[in-house]
Each structure stands twice: as structure tokens, then as C-alpha cells.
Request: fold
Amino acid sequence: MLGGIRPAGSRRSWWLREALAEEEAASPHMAAAAPPLRGSITADVVIVGGGYTGLWAAYRATELEAGARIVLLEADICGGGPSGRNGGFVTNWWDELPTLVDRYGEAGALAVARAIEGAVDEIGTWCATHGVDAWYTKAGALQASAAPAQDGAWDEAVAACRALGVGDRYLPLDRDEMRARVASPVFRGGVFMPGAATIQPAVLARGLRRILLERGVVIHEGTQVTEIDGQQPGWLGSVAATTRRAPVRHAGRSRTWRPVRVRTMSAVGAGEVVAASAVVALNAWAAAWPWFGRRLVTWSSTIILTEPIPDRLADLGWTGGEGVSDARFTLHYLRTTPDGRIAIGGGGGRAGFGGRIGPAFTDDVLSSRRAAAGLRHLFPSLRDVRIEDSWGGPIDVSADHLPWFGSVRGRPIHHGHGYSGNGVAPAVVGGRILAARALERADDPVLASPLATGSAPRAFPPEPARYLGARLVREAAARRESAEERGASVEPVVRELSRLPRRLGYHIGPR
Ligand SMILES: Cc1cc2nc3c(=O)[nH]c(=O)nc-3n(C[C@H](O)[C@H](O)[C@H](O)COP(=O)(O)OP(=O)(O)OC[C@H]3O[C@@H](n4cnc5c(N)ncnc54)[C@H](O)[C@@H]3O)c2cc1C
Reply:
């Protein structure tokens, strides 16, 4: 069954290969890589990173100020990172409501969850408006218990939704209701989030790129940013150079800041952008930059893709396009494609050291095998199904599992990261926040969102403790959850290790 799995990181994800092939057929000119930067240019806003965060920030900036000179710099091609590699789940945050209440209070939590709910719909509307066929399907998301230890993992969130008058957003299902939607013999019950959607993630990223080019945004691909405002990436991220809320003082552009200087390197040589403000949208790569390193742990997630099996999906009753996950901390997430494949990811992943994103983040046969084992556990009848593809990508885990949209103290440098593996819908809101800050739109309502005003997440321990701790906890969690699924006993030391982050006050890891 695993014969089809080969290291995938050396090539594009299946999503991105599909998206690029379509793009090439429709417009070879548009599909060609945007030229790398050479020499010195100026801009109103320079955006570093061509994933959803950078792309949505650029898009919003074009809405806020049509004449603004926006330059976007991407080391690879737009969508080459996780934005073109992810599972394509576009989920609400109703399952995060207890954490949101803890962080922002009830009113703030509701406002944030409603903003994310709005972002899910906005992606669908945006795709329809701009003729981007990213397979947007709003069929909801199911989370299932696949072992006694996972039963009721959603109870606290369901209760929080009910208490805040949004019980219809997150609906518990008993065993039969759950299996009627997707017939897995191991599903013991679950919960349904009707407002969630799925997409073809790379088509969305590439569609955003196309619209930005049409709007006059200057994109340089194959352009590695090597320095921002005198800072360079390294692996010993500090907490000293910390960041805080945006320095927005009034509506309109103050242009009082000293410009931001961004230096680059590419195949054609060195480059430089001197800009009034900068947006740093680097996702897991942010962990290598001194401003952010201690607030992020990098983690890998790997997806495998089956051959087309539409008839088998029909046998399972799984034909509506719903996203499905189990309730492990080392979560398995599964979705279908229009030609009847299953993409399943998760089940473990690896921690990264000091913000380095090495080949293990994309070429990881062990993680592919774990995902395949997850598929076999959840759907034993699919044991013989061929796995045709596999790829991975890095995730930027923050201490509270929520993204953080901040600004460098005293500088017009704004950043968004920390999505912790759930960034498709939140990046829409993040892009709005970052564009409003970069263009100093203090009156933009999005800047009143608790997501824009909240403080930085807790720092993680310095390296090498951060890497060793993350690795230890991940192994313990994966061992514990696999044992729980098999009905085997869990050694007390493994259970305690898996709980360590919670005991230390982080909002991550199993309870
Ligand atoms: C396997 C996997 C599955 C996932 N599944 C889901 C899911 O189903 N639903 C969900 O909501 N989220 C999911 N996520 C998370 C989601 O993909 C991310 O949160 C989201 O794509 C973040 O977008 P971004 O723009 O911040 O980052 P990215 O897409 O990573 O973009 C950052 C970009 O910065 C570029 N870059 C890095 N360093 C430099 C530099 N020095 N100079 C220039 N450019 C640089 C990178 O090449 C990259 O393109 C998943 C992630 C992975 C890896």
C-alpha cells in the first residue's frame, strides 16, 4: 500500500502541480515565475512572503489604496509553501471558543469567532467574484471520536457555544448520527461544524497571485529576503527584541517613520526594497528571525493522497465533501477531492530546531506512514487503496495555538504568524489587519478586533530546550494516543510527558 510513497518535498504538492498545470494551460504568461529582484527599488508597502497572509495583505492593501506601490517578495513561488500544501480545511473557530473566552473574554471571543466565520464565506465569495475555481465547498466539518479517550473532546466547546447563544454552530452527534454521515466502524460519536468549507488550497493561492498581478502589485519570486531593518535570520531567536501592538496614531498616512530597508538575494544577484512600511508574512520561517523566534515552535505536517475511489466513498456515504478529523492532539484530518480521492494528513509530524526548515518538513516517509496508518485505522475497508502522493510542510505553533498579528516596537514593521496549522480562514482576517496597519488606517474597524489588539503569546524556552521539549512531547503524545486507539494501557511517564505543555500553562498538547 505504501509503495507509492516517495519523498515529495523535492517537488510540488499535488495541489500545486494541478494548479500550475491549469494556470499554464489558461495563460502561460501569467503562470511564468515573476522575475527575481535585482537592484534597489522603493515601495509604500513591502510584503515578505507569498502565502495567504502576504497575498491577502497585498489584496486588502489594493482595496484600501488603489494607487499604493506594493511589492511582494517570495523566496520560492507564491503558494510554494504551506498555502499551496495544506489540507484545504477552511474552518471556523467555534471549537476554539473556550480558549478565545480565556484570552479575550466572552464578547471578544464572539467577535473573533464571528470574524473567522465571515472569512470562510469571504473566501467563497472572493473565488466566485474573481473566477477562481478553488473547489470551494461549504459542506461543514466533522470531528469524530475514534477511541474512548477521544470521547467528548468537544464537550467544553459545545457548552461554550451554547452558553454564548451560538449552539447551532457546533453540534454534537451520537454514534449513529456520526456514522450516517461517514461510515467508519471506529467512529463513536462526533461533532459537526456546519459553517466550515474545503478548498483546493493551491488554486486559491495562485488565484490571489493572478489578481494581485492584474492590480499592479509588483511580485518578485525566487527572491530570498536576507535582512529586514538590519535584522537577519539565525537560530537563536531572542525575546528581548519583542513586539507589540501597531504604532497607528491617526487615520491617513503619517509617513513619519524612517523607511524600512529589506535586502534580498536571488539567482540574479542582490536586491533591496526601501519602503514606508513592511509586512512580514513568513509563517514557520518567522521562527528563524530574532524578533519572533522564541514565540514559535516549528512543526511538520504531512499529507498523503489516495488514488481516485469514488465508489468506495459512496459505500462510506461520504459524498458531500465534508472535512473529517479525529480528536487526537496528533490529529488526523481527511477530505475528499472532486475525482474521489482522500487526502489525509497529520498523525504526528516533527519539531524543528531553531527555526530551521529542513528537508524533514517536506520529505518525511515516517510521517507519511503514520498518516497511512491513520487512514487504515479510521477506514479498515480501504486497506488495499493505493497511495499516489505525499508531501509535507511546516507549521508555526504558538503557545496559545492562535495567530498573532503584531508590530515591531517603534517601527512600521507588521507581522502575522502562529496559525498553528489552522491558517486558511484566519489569514483573510490577518491580511486585513496587516494591510490596515501598513497603510496606517487607524479607523479601519478590523484594528479594533481582539486579534489586532491582543498581546504577544507566551515565549517558549530557548534552544535547545525548545526543540528537545517539543520532540519529547510529540513522541509521548503520539505513543499515548496510538495506545489509546488500540485499547492498550499507557505508561504513566508517557501520559505525564504528553501533558507537560498544559501543566506549564501552554494551550497545546493533550490534557
Ligand atoms: C501539511 C499542512 C496542512 C495544513 N492544513 C491546513 C488546513 O487544512 N486548514 C488550515 O486552515 N490550515 C492548514 N495548514 C496551515 C496553513 O497552511 C497555514 O497556516 C497558512 O498557509 C499560512 O499562510 P502564510 O501565508 O502565513 O504562510 P506560508 O504559506 O508558509 O507562506 C510563507 C511564505 O514565505 C516564504 N518565505 C520564507 N522565508 C522567506 C524569505 N526569507 N524571503 C522570502 N520569502 C520567504 C515561503 O517560501 C512561503 O511561501 C496546514 C499546513 C500544512 C503544512
